[in-house]
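**User:** Everyone, produce a chain:

**Assistant:**
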Amino acid sequence: MGTGTVLVHLEGIRRVYVSAGETVAALDGIDLTLNEGEVVVMLLGPSGSGKTTLLNVLSAMDSPTEGTYRFRGDIVPSAPDALDVEPFALPRPHPLLSPPLWLVERVVGLVLGVVRWPGRTLAERRRAKALEAQAAFRRANIGYVFQQYNLLGDLTVLENVMLAQEISGGRDRARAKHMLAKVGLEGLEQRFPAELSGGQQQRVAIARSLAKHARLLLGDEPTGNLDSETTQQVMKALLDICRKEGVTAVIVTHDEALTAHATRVLRLDSGRLHSDERGGAGTLVGKGKHVVKDVLDTAEDVVESVRRPVEAAISGGVNTAKALGAVAKDIAEAARPKRKE
């Protein structure tokens, strides 16, 4: 249920790795557009389908070898691979000739190092600057929920959420508490991770990712360590928040049941996008259910906002009436004629 505004646009994305002299295309020509507010579930193919690489590209933790990645119309920073210069080596001759050739190799290697040094230094500086730009992009736009909760055990629930805000350059205690309430953890802010269940810890991780106003939330099998019932509860909380906050979510999973919560379902295999289908939340029935739920939630919020001051007023009125009654009783008691002994 996106707004129609394009958030992510990938065009011709390829990511190639060279391992042991062999070239492997982890992503091989991905074209993908995601609108703001969409909830996308990516179902895994066999091992090596490319899902981790795609998430890394979306989060700017990795850079595509080819293609264009735009986020809200702007090119996402891209860092070139680190330079890997092989040392100079001559073919191995007869063992008796190895000592003089070893000296030649060292001298030639030293000369090449001196010649290459300015170019390598400049390339390394450019790469470092690009990596800093990628990190800034992630801090400003990306939330990530991992299969492991990655909470700091010596910090409270609230402190874990606020730490993510501080790393992103802002500290907002009220929003941190608000997001914890949204995932059903109101009243547990001062507990430590060890005092929570697995499902509750993952809810903290979700609140932590969204508390910094992330535009794109990425989940790498975030419910992989949870049972089926807790999985449904956590995913419902996660996707409800994303929908209401207008956050685009891309969730990688093996669980077909989670497609019921998605507006789109992608299937990735061998580095290619094999299908892009409508999810349960993208159908007319699914959209209608969410509209009804949002109306009911809004009504509940309105009732709650009215109930508290009314209860406070009634409680205050009752207490005032009791106090006035006590004063009147004291006055009546003082005015009553004293009986002579």
Q: What stands out?
A: The longest strand covers residues 6-19. The two ends are 87 Å apart (CA to CA). Strands lie at 6-19, 22-35, 39-44, 66-71, 74-75, 142-145, 216-220, 248-253, 264-269, 272-278.
